[in-house]
């Protein structure tokens, strides 16, 4: 893995370490008090949950996947128990290895192992999440975060990290398939060290820079994947809901019930289309169970597979 360049002295410190357990714990606690209705800029986002910027985070994940197709894949189809602030995305090789480790533990003799479900508290962290956490570090804005890596420098920006519970129980199984335990300093943290992966931490930054430029033709910034003041000031100005021109305008994504909840302008368009087709739905941009059940009704009416997921066939039926 190569380190990305940083251009400010404070960031020259070695940030290969973050206290993951503490960050996950504070984040989980903060979820209950988050200002869900906030729609302003990142700069004024109320603390202390990064889910306040769920809309922008989802755009950043999708944009990374436009830059390197399929580099971040969801693992919410594996037998895992996901924390509420965890975006369940890993690079495909890491996901495959995680699936093997889970099977490995399940196959091991003894009832004690058979019923263990892997609890994952944190995985992929988007640039804006890291930006918020970094801004809230050391008790700033009343948020009890301690040490946090600067944006672009976290192990959680590479799609190769997980923070889990029961690290002792899982360690032998994860290590068998290329997942390395960080050690006592950061007990819940494992990093995938197997072959075939890419260092995509700078892509987390570049994804934001590309989206900014696409939306601001008169205020172009360098798309260099380097985090500095130019990028930071643009993150500040961006809406927590994301950009007007979204990455799914370039290439649609699968819309389905997920955690964190699928959110965005593409969801609004689907909800408006359902409304226009006579369904009783309020376009709020959030793809929850209510929206999924109306999608199912629509699919049944159209003779499609009624799975509540908006893929290419359902999209075509909705928009033609
Ligand atoms: Zn971690």
Molecular structure report:
There is one protein chain. With 320 residues, this protein is of the alpha+beta class. It has 2 domains: 9-192, Muramoyl-pentapeptide Carboxypeptidase, domain 2 (2-Layer Sandwich); 252-319, PGBD-like superfamily/PGBD (Muramoyl-pentapeptide Carboxypeptidase, domain 1, Orthogonal Bundle). The chain contains 12 helices and 9 strands. The protein has a 5-stranded mixed sheet, sandwiched between helices. β6 (179-181) and β7 form a beta hairpin. The longest helix has 16 residues, at 92-107. The protein is globular. The model is unreliable at 1-14 (pLDDT under 50). Zinc ion (ZN) binds next to β5. The site of zinc ion has 7 residues, from β5.
Give the topology, please.
Layout: H1 20-31, H2 54-67, E1 73-74, E2 80-82, E3 89-90, H3 92-107, H4 111-114, E4 118-122, H5 127-135, E5 161-164, H6 167-176, E6 179-181, E7 189-192, H7 201-215, H8 229-237, H9 247-250, E8 262-263, H10 265-276, E9 286-287, H11 289-302, H12 312-319
Residues 20, 122, 155-156, 161, 163, 189 line the site of zinc ion.
Task: Provide the structure class.
Answer: alpha+beta
Uncertain regions: pLDDT < 50 for 5+ in a row? 1-14
Nearest-angstrom radius of gyration?
Answer: 20 Å
Mean pLDDT: 90
Report the end-to-end length measured between terminal Cα atoms.
46 Å
In total, the number of domains comes to 2
Topology-level CATH name of the largest domain: Muramoyl-pentapeptide Carboxypeptidase, domain 2
CATH architecture call of the largest domain = 2-Layer Sandwich
Q: Short description, anyone?
A:
The protein is an alpha+beta fold.
